[in-house]
Each structure stands twice: as structure tokens, then as C-alpha cells.
Amino acid sequence: MENSPEQKLEELYITLNEVSQPVASYVNCVRTGNLLYLSGKGPIKKDKTYVTGKVGKDLTTAQGNEAARLVAIDHIAVLKDEIGDLSKVKKIVKAFGMVNCTEEFVDQAKVINGYSDLMHEVFGEKGRHARSAVSMHALPLNFAVEVEVIVEIED
Question: Which of 56, 98, 102, 118 is the most exposed place for a label (fewest CB within 10 A)?
């Protein structure tokens, strides 16, 4: 039998953060039918500070990738808070990844892979998703990356 997402998190030595509150006028998650729309999140570290700066100037591609992984951890915490049991996740449907980067930077996909790879590690095939990875001139609070996601859950 396949390990549950919670067991996978333990195997990866990942402890979920307390769900961070929105920084503006929105909510973390909206449910319609069996779909959850999770708002864009920035990369928050254990010390409650954010990974900030431009990839390609202030951060390397690898550091951007790690920042995107932190967003995945935060999104998983939102999911856990919203549905309780992560085994209720039927499919990570679509992720939209935004990279705060220099005009010359072209490896947005490698950065957002940090997000996508962790979702696959935690949810297995249910974690494979459609995705966009785009560059942004700036992001709120100077986040290095921001990702939003659509998730299908069981009834």
C-alpha cells in the first residue's frame, strides 16, 4: 500500500508551518464543488521571514527552486487546514508559478520545478499537474516566487 501524504511528509522530514494569513484582502482558499483554489503564496521560511529578491541577480536558480519548494510546503499546510486529511486530495490540477527575476533570466521552469517536484513527492501521481512558469517584474513584498494552485478533492 502506498504511503499517505502525511507519511511522505514525515519521510521527507517536512513539518508543516502554521498557515500564514493573507497579506491583503483575500482568503487562502476558496472551495467550489470539489475544487479548491489556493491563493498565491510567497516562500515563507521557518523563522517566518520570506525569501525575497530577484532570481538571476539576488538569488541563483537553485535558491529560487528551494523558494518554490517552500511555497509548496505552505500550500500543503493550507490544504491540511482546509480538508484535514491530505489523502482526500484527488489531484493537483494546475499550478501557476511566478518568478521575480531579471529581464535576462530564462529558467523559470527550473525554479518552479521546486514546487512541482515536491507536490509529486508528497502526492505521487496525484501530484502531477498542468503548470505555467512565468517571469514577473516584481511580486508582493519582493517575494522571489509566488505560486497559486487548483486542487481537486474527494467528496
Answer: 102
What does the domain layout of the chain look like in residue ranges? 5-15+37-153
Q: Given this model, what pLDDT does residue 1 score?
A: 60
| 114 and 65 Cβ atoms separated by less than 8 Å | yes
Cα 133 from chain centroid? 12
Beta strands in the chain (DSSP E): 29-32, 35-41, 89-100, 130-136, 145-153
- In the block, cell 508551518 appears at 17
- At 28, phi and psi to the nearest 5? -65, -30
Q: 5-15+37-153 domain in CATH 3.30.559.30?
A: no
d(CA 77, CA 24) in angstroms, rounded, equals 19
Beta bridge partners of 21: none
Beta bridge partners of 151: 36, 92
Q: Is the pTM of this model over 0.90?
A: yes
The whole-angstrom separation of Cα 3 and Cα 154 is 18
